[in-house]
Amino acid sequence: MPPTSRRQHAAPARTRQQEQARAQARRAEQRARESHLDHLAENTQHGWQDIAHLIGRKQPGPYDTAVTLLKDLRDLHDRAGTPEEFARRLDDLREQHRGKPSLMRRLTDAGLTPR
Questions:
Q1: Residue 98 is inside which H or E element, if any?
Q2: Can you tell me the distance from the alpha carbon of 19 to that of 77, in angstroms, rounded to the nearest whole number?
Q3: Closest Cα to residue 33, out of 61, 67, 71, 66?
Q4: Angle at 76 between CA 55 and CA 60, to 5 degrees
Q5: Tens digit of each residue's pLDDT (9 = 90 or more) over 30-85
Q6: At what angle do helices 3-41 and 60-80 cross, to 10 degrees?
Q7: CA 114 vs CA 9, 40, 85, 89, 106: distances in Å
Q8: Residue 36: per-residue pLDDT
Q9: Residue 43 region by backbone torsions, left for phi larger than 0, else alpha for psi between -120 and 50, else beta
Q10: What are phi and psi of 39, to 5 degrees?
Q11: For the range 41-49, what are the long-range contacts, defined as Cβ-Cβ under 8 Å and sequence gap of 24 or more?
């Protein structure tokens, strides 16, 4: 086989290997995500308490962490078939902290808006 043909043949093989590696990485990320949500599901009340504590610090970094945790809780409630419970608690949280524009902006940017 001429050198050019070997290189042309090797390129699709590398592409397949790269696609397989990316698919494997996505599956590993999904398993880690599910494991994280399973752990959070063991005590969602603790998650809500963490959010209250983080917001109470009134700093950008903790706000970002609280938003990430809220997205996790949203996904957990969706998975459990209780999105209305999450929506109610999110609405309560937004009402309680409506005077914190930086937090409200972060919630809105993350898609954590009233349903």
A1: none
A2: 32
A3: 71
A4: 20
A5: 899 888 889 999 999 999 999 999 999 999 999 999 999 999 999 999 999 999 99
A6: 90
A7: 53, 22, 12, 10, 14
A8: 87
A9: beta
A10: -65, -45
A11: 41/76, 41/80, 44/73, 44/76, 47/72, 47/73, 48/73, 48/89
d(CA 36, CA 59): 25
Collapse the DSSP code of 89 into the 3-class scheme (helix H, G, I; strand E, B; otherwise coil) and give the result. helix
Phi, psi of 4 (to 5 degrees): -65, -45
Q: Give CA–CA dist 94/1, Å, rounded.
A: 67
Tell me how many degrees the CA angle 24-43-34 measures, rounded to the nearest 5: 10
Instruction: Tell me the angle at which helices 60-80 and 83-96 cross, rounded to the nearest 10 degrees.
Output: 160
> Which two structure tokens, joined as six digits, stand for 95?
């009402």
pTM for the predicted model, two decimal places: 0.77
